[in-house]
Amino acid sequence: MAKKLKEIQAPIEKELNQFEIHFKNALKTKVMLLDKIMHYIIKRKGKQMRPMFVLLTANVCGGIQPATYRGAALVELLHTATLIHDDVVDDADERRGFFSLNALWKNKIAVLVGDYLLSRGLLMSLESDDFHLLKIVSHAVKLMSEGELLQIEKARTLNIDVAVYLEIIRMKTASLIASCTECGAASVTNDKNLIEAFRLFGEKIGLAFQIKDDLLDYGEDQIGKPLGIDIKEKKMTLPLIHALNQASWYDRRKVISLVKNHKGNKKELQWIKDFIIQNQGIAYSQKVMIQYKEEALEILKPFPESPSKQSLIDLVEYTIERSY
Q: Which terminus of the chain is more solvent-facing, meaning fewer CB atoms within 10 Å of its CB: N or C?
């Protein structure tokens, strides 16, 4: 059973508090409206998994440095900016149980706030000469945008094979976690092989993380996100893709038609879920997810045992055992 996040954070508890100070300082502004929105962003922060990956990786690679905090803050700034812009694009009213910025302050202000966060990340890096960290995170944002557009392009026909799907989530999701672990390593060492090893480590965790998200959509756990969100949004997830590949021509056409025209009917949702289970979609996805997890943990094996290494291992386990 995976440890709770609070237990995993134990070796870097003080450093996480220090990161909070760096992040809050990066959000400071003299514009009253913007300052109010920045306080709202801080209030609704998530589980801090991204800064945890940065800080724990840095510790495993030699010890946290001032650049590590800046790297963690940079990842959070640019990622938060992309989430705000995503909410505008998706016309989303909520995120993490809070109202989205566009729901409270409308699209124009939300887009400008996203732009502000991007600029703060860029300036923070330039002012500290963290060009290597800026390059890592900027590359991740580029991949995230390309992955999102590739998914939109493929969603029009709902004709995605496993290889294309994995490429989409490698760019869209895994690139961000890869930038966390790569930044963590690059903030404390110039060893290119070590930095690349941790980039690959983060990428594999990111792939496993997204596949876990796919499984949650089909009710793999009793709690979690509502069943069928991905189907409602016409997203082709790994369980569905694999099941379609195993199905007859007739069943394949029927499922694709149901997904394309889905209106929230519970019977249709259950039929699709049963179809996926019968065609080994969930079992196959679990197998692929565990494979990526094991490949990630294999990368950690050569490093000396330490509380931070153990927490990094526990954080990997947490990503695939979480229920939301």
A: N
CA distances from 5 to 167, 225, 298, 324 (A): 29, 19, 22, 13
Identity of the amino acid at 15: E
Number of domains in the chain: 1
* Domain-located, residue 36: yes
Query: Is 308 exposed, middle or buried (CB count within 10 Å of its CB: 0-12, 13-18, 19+)?
Result: buried
What torsion, rounded to 10 degrees, do the Cα atoms 55, 57, 60, 64 define?
-30
Q: Does 324 fall in a domain?
A: no
Sequence-distant (≥ 6) Cβ neighbours of residue 240 within 8 angstroms: 231, 255, 259, 272, 276, 281
**Element at 98 (helix H, strand E):** strand 98-99
What six digits make up the tokens of 111?
A: 């887009």
pLDDT, one tens digit for every residue, the chain (324 residues): 567 888 898 899 999 988 888 888 888 888 889 888 888 888 777 778 899 999 999 999 988 999 999 999 999 888 888 888 888 887 777 776 678 778 878 888 888 888 888 888 888 889 889 999 999 999 998 999 899 888 888 777 667 789 999 999 999 999 999 999 999 999 999 999 999 999 999 999 999 999 998 888 766 443 334 455 666 566 778 998 899 888 888 888 887 877 777 666 677 777 888 888 889 899 999 999 999 999 999 999 999 999 999 999 999 999 888 776
CA contacts within 13 A on the Cβ side of 294: 6
Considering the domain boundaries, does residue 320 fall inside one?
A: no
Q: Tell me which residue range forms the domain holding 170.
A: 5-313
| Alpha helices for 159-302 (secondary structure H) | 162-169, 175-186, 192-217, 229-232, 238-246, 249-260, 266-278, 281-300
Residue 322 forms part of a structural domain: no
The CATH number assigned to the domain holding 15 equals 1.10.600.10
